[in-house]
Design brief:
The protein has one domain: HIT family, subunit A, CATH 3.30.428.10. Helix content is 30%, strand content 19%. A hairpin with a 3-residue loop joins β1 and β2. The two termini are 32 Å apart. 20% of the residues are buried.
Length: 135
């Protein structure tokens, strides 16, 4: 049983923030910034690819509820909603989870994306490859 399944089963204590029949949210023990929370499905799913439609919907709804509470509590102007999906993306606990990381003017947490010049021909080819694989 993974660590998040143990938390869901109350075998490991956690600082719970929100709970319903499908989802549990609790403070991340690492606290990248104050209020850093996790939102997990109660049903074990390794990653985004394993989520069923209902779980995905419930997770996003719960994430919004927790995010609104974080904003109200800390007066946030920003928040990262992050999922590391798979080993190469930095997933370390293989039970799907969403990080809600509050952002503060004074924090040093950095997430950045390169600003590449767009190659519209390549974008079009990439789009067509992806479109061929929708179910």
């Amino acid at each position: 049983m993974c660590v998040f399944c143990k938390i869901v089963a109350n075998e490991i204590p956690s600082m719970k923030l929100y709970e319903d029949d499908f989802v549990l949210s609790f403070l991340d023990i690492s606290q990248v910034t104050e209020g850093h929370a996790l939102v997990v499905p109660k049903k074990h799913c390794e990653n985004l690819y394993d989520l069923d439609d209902e779980s995905a919907s419930k997770l996003l709804s719960a994430s919004q509820k927790v995010a609104l509470a974080l904003r109200k509590t800390f007066g946030l102007d920003g928040l990262h909603l992050i999922n590391n999906n798979g080993r190469l993306a930095g997933q370390s606990v293989f039970h799907f989870h969403i990080h809600l990381i509050p952002r503060y003017e004074s924090d040093a947490f950095v997430v950045s994306f390169p600003r590449n010049k767009p190659d519209f021909e390549k974008l079009s080819a990439t789009r067509l490859k992806i479109l061929d694989n929708f179910d």
